[in-house]
Write a structure and sequence with these properties.
8 helices; ten-stranded mixed sheet; alpha/beta; disordered C terminus; Dihydrofolate Reductase, subunit A
Length: 258
């Protein structure tokens, strides 16, 4: 994978070095998404249909840097999530940086319609987390509590700000939000998205596929600053950092030395 921006570029980029935040003083939420060249966030109903080898490699690196992986229940079901199981070398890498052996997956769900026997709960190193609200069906909550840690955030809908605060209270500061578009839209609407790692796939999809945000119009729109552009096999890897309207609030790109 080669770096196009910032200049001067480089022909061989260390992805861990490029994306690692070495000193997180407060919770940082990174959105990790893929889209086609015409803006579709899915192909044949799945984000995985847009991916390629380099994108999968970056996805694995970003997972490996996270304290927790945040995903919506629909994404978990459609993409066939299982628990993260890092290699021995990756576990050593994480331990050397003060991280747990593996990041738990935190699933946001309104209905708690998840199978306790699914791989998400049975094929994992770290016990998963289920985030729901107080009015969720209690028989489903009870079943999931047997196989996951439960977080209640909100009364009739999941309150994303409260949910992220609850994760931060558990020491989970590096949040990798893997979507889908509905969840990422809610995170952005809650003003909690600090960084966007967007892969642009060299495909044209057409149709009526979702964009990477599927939700209410953001007013005002969230300003982003382009920090890095990488390329491999015609895939573009864009790293955007969040900035406030006056340009003063930016994610800590300085900790990467950029």
């Amino acid at each position: 994978m080669r770096r196009l921006l910032p200049l001067p570029g480089a022909d061989d980029v260390d992805l861990d070095e490029a994306y690692w935040l070495s000193d997180v003083g407060h919770q940082q939420v990174r959105g990790v998404m893929v889209a086609s060249a015409d803006g579709a966030a899915q192909a044949h109903g799945r984000a995985g249909g847009l991916s390629g080898p380099a994108d999968k490699a970056l996805f694995a690196v970003l997972r490996g840097q996270a304290d927790v992986l945040l995903a919506g229940a629909t994404t978990v079901r459609v993409e066939g999530y299982a628990g993260e199981q890092p290699t021995a070398d990756r576990r050593d890498w994480r331990r050397a940086r003060g991280l747990s052996e593996a990041p738990p997956i935190a699933v946001v769900t309104r209905t708690c319609d998840l199978d306790p026997a699914a791989g998400l709960f049975t094929e994992t190193v770290a016990r998963p987390i289920v985030i729901t609200h107080r009015q969720a069906p209690q028989h489903r909550v009870a079943a999931l509590a047997e196989v996951a840690d439960m977080i209640t955030a909100g009364e009739q809908e999941v309150d994303l700000s409260a949910a992220l605060d609850a994760l931060a209270e558990r020491g989970l500061r590096r949040v990798s939000c893997e979507g889908g578009p509905r969840l990422l839209s809610q995170v952005a609407a809650a003003d909690r998205l600090d960084e966007l790692s967007l892969t642009v796939s060299p495909l044209l999809v057409g149709g009526s596929a979702l964009r990477i945000l599927d939700g209410a119009l953001l007013e005002p729109p969230t300003r982003l600053r382009l920090a890095d552009v990488l390329e491999d096999e015609s895939f573009l890897f864009l790293r955007y950092l969040r900035a406030g309207a006056d340009g003063e609030r930016e994610v800590q790109d300085e900790v990467n030395g950029s």
